[in-house]
Design brief:
By secondary structure, the protein is α+β, with helices and mostly antiparallel strands. The protein has helices at residues 22-33, 44-47, 61-70, 97-101, 104-107, 188-198, 238-252, and strands at residues 3-11, 16-19, 37-41, 56-58, 92-96, 111-115, 124-126, 143-147, 152-161, 164-170, 207-215, 220-227. The protein has seven helices and twelve strands. Strands 1, 2, 3 and 4 form a four-stranded mixed sheet that branches. The radius of gyration is 19 Å and the shape is globular.
Length: 261
């Protein structure tokens, strides 16, 4: 059985190494309950030569990609897979952040803009020149996805694991206390239809998120898809979270999923 490598940091208040963030901690507890051998480390360089194809690394996106690259894997999930576009409820197109910043009609239009490259900046609505702060420059002309804004009242993260929904967790206060998300609910029939169309996606991930929302005009829409190796748990039960991560690592590194039971 492969090992689990866990990024940690030293907590001076308790005088010991602890998981680097709460998501890593939740995954650690899940793998512990599954009987995994868990090894601590501080920096990816410490373990790069030690990690085997059967192992799992709990770290941030760029560090995980370093390990994937070592084994010739290149993880990629489109934000809006073609089989899911009918659930977007809005137009989506490609542009660059420099093009947007140079055109007042674009940066004042109130479009939602997110980078194609993972996490170079957080996707958000741009309706003022100040909203471009932190989104790059002419020297960092990122490709972006642009979409018409939608009036969202509540959002959830659906965890897809081997073509089934493990759980659907609310974003809650992460999006601000002014949003009364608890007052709204998604249409479960629409979500089930989304999953059925997801199964038509050739080469689909063994584990990923299907983020959904409820809008002011009463629609349940797809927000975006995200890769399982790069997701927070949002309260997903610890063993399920560990299995969720293992499924995607196993698929990417083309090996048997030891925790699929």
């Amino acid at each position: 059985m492969g090992k689990v490598w866990l990024k940690t940091k030293y907590d001076e208040s308790i005088g010991m190494q602890v998981p680097y963030n709460p998501n890593f901690a939740q995954a650690m507890y899940g793998f512990r309950d599954l009987g995994a051998e868990i090894n601590f480390y501080d920096a990816i360089d410490e373990i790069y030569d030690k990690v085997e194809r059967e192992d799992i690394v709990l770290d941030y996106i760029s560090q995980c990609n370093t390990i994937f690259k070592k084994f010739g894997a290149d993880p990629y999930i489109p934000d809006y897979p073609e089989v899911m576009t009918k659930y977007l409820g809005r137009k989506v197109w490609h542009d660059t952040i420099y093009s947007i910043s140079c055109d007042e009609k674009k940066w004042s239009a109130g479009y939602f803009v997110k980078p194609i490259k993972d996490k170079v900046f957080t996707g958000h609505i741009i309706k003022d020149i100040r909203d471009l702060i932190g989104c790059g420059s002419c020297y960092e002309d990122y490709e972006v996805l642009v979409s018409e804004p939608i009036d969202i009242l509540a959002e959830w993260r659906g965890f897809i694991y081997y073509d089934e929904i493990l759980d659907i967790r609310p974003y809650g206060l992460l999006l601000g206390r002014d949003r009364k998300s608890f007052m709204y609910h998604y249409d479960s029939e629409v979500v089930c239809s989304m999953v059925e169309d997801f199964k038509k996606w050739e080469g689909r991930p063994a584990a990923c998120s299907m983020d959904i929302c409820y809008t002011k005009d009463g629609r349940t829409l797809l927000v975006e898809m995200n890769d399982a190796y790069a997701l927070g748990c949002y309260g997903l039960e610890k063993v399920m979270y560990a299995k969720f991560i293992s499924a995607r690592w196993s698929q990417l590194l083309q090996r048997e999923d030891e925790y699929r039971f």
